[in-house]
Design brief:
The protein is an alpha+beta fold. Helix content is 35%, strand content 21%.
């Protein structure tokens, strides 16, 4: 991509129709809009013209803005559509139908990665270790298969960002399994997935590129003072509740003490995962490092949270990329892909 002025449509979402009328000037100054704020600021500093477009449950406002403003590219930050995170791939596909380049992962990678069960089925033949699991459909029996051992961890099939994950997600008997699966069904109106619980360090691996994948220095979530009976998991509170994080001594730091062979194994795993799941643009992988054996891939997250002081950007910065340069490279990858 040449260094020249571009029109960039920053595309984000709201969960409620009434929020489409939000005052963006004020909203972009709040923590809830941190990613949009940081990216818009970086794009402006790079010399681009930026407009923000919001979607909720209709695509016509997006089509109208593309038709009237004629952006050179869309910076796609949509994590959900029509109130469901599983619909994010449809927005990427719609951008392709509109004939406009966009940043981040394409619809195939979004679709494969969002379904935690499908992703595991795709990855196993590629020699990527993933937790054994089974699905629990709403209204179906919840009995654990004999091949799995307690404890298990129960998650929603499609949600990201640890939504729906708490200490109660760790289940140790049939009664707890049934209760937690019903909570997922009731709260998210989707199947639950029950996985073997992998003890070990939790590592975040950030990736950038399409075809040739660049792997940034790893981050790790650490737990200094959890209660003795609490599992070391990246629950929703452990990720997003600052009071809880301070109380439990939870920090995100660079994983600087890994043996060189472990680092090489993780890099190989990351690149195989990106290829198998069609992760183009940028992505983050969540891994567990058990005390013995190969790293275990928990989840693949295309288009992860992108703000200047969050894990992905901090990993890029450690590799020598300022936030503005990172945004520029993500933009460049979108232009290089063009319109499939």
């Amino acid at each position: 991509m040449k260094r020249e002025h571009k029109r960039v449509l920053l595309l984000s979402f709201v969960s409620r129709k009434e929020d489409l009328a939000v005052d963006l000037g004020a909203a972009l100054k709040t923590p809830e809009w941190l990613s949009e704020h940081d990216i818009a600021r970086a794009l402006a500093r790079l010399g681009h013209e930026v407009e923000v477009c919001l979607v909720c449950d209709e695509v016509e406002p997006l089509a109208t803005r593309v038709r009237e403003w004629k952006p050179d590219i869309v910076f796609n930050l949509v994590d959900e559509f029509r109130g469901k995170s599983v619909n994010d791939w449809k927005v990427a596909a719609y951008l392709e139908l509109l004939g406009v380049p966009y940043t981040g992962c394409g619809p195939r990678g979004l679709l494969l990665s969002k379904d935690k069960s499908l992703a595991k089925q795709v990855l196993r033949p590629h020699r990527i270790r993933v937790p054994d699991c089974f699905l629990i459909e709403p209204g179906a029996a919840t009995r654990k298969p004999a091949r799995l051992q307690w404890p298990l961890i129960v998650k929603s099939l499609y949600e990201e960002g640890s939504v729906g994950i708490s200490q109660a997600s760790i289940v140790r008997d049939e009664a707890q399994l049934k209760e937690r699966a019903e909570f997922i069904h009731r709260t998210f109106s989707q199947p639950a997935i029950a996985e073997e619980f992998i003890e070990g360090r939790e590592i975040y691996v950030s990736l950038l590129g399409s075809g040739r994948i660049r792997v940034f220095p790893f981050r790790e979530i650490r737990f200094a003072s959890l209660p003795d009976d609490a599992a070391q998991i990246a629950s929703f509170s452990a990720k997003w509740d600052e009071d809880y994080r301070k109380r439990c001594g939870i920090t995100n730091e660079f994983a600087t003490d890994l043996p060189p062979e472990t680092v090489r194994r993780i890099v190989r795993l990351a690149r195989r995962t990106a290829k198998a799941l069609n992760l183009d643009g940028y992505a983050r992988l969540d891994l567990r490092l058990p005390s013995e054996g190969a790293p275990v891939l928990l989840e693949a997250n295309p288009n992860p949270f992108l703000a200047r002081k969050e894990d992905f950007a901090l990993s890029a910065e450690a590799a020598g990329l300022s936030f503005a340069r990172l945004v520029s490279k993500i933009l460049k990858l979108g232009f290089e892909r063009g319109v499939p």
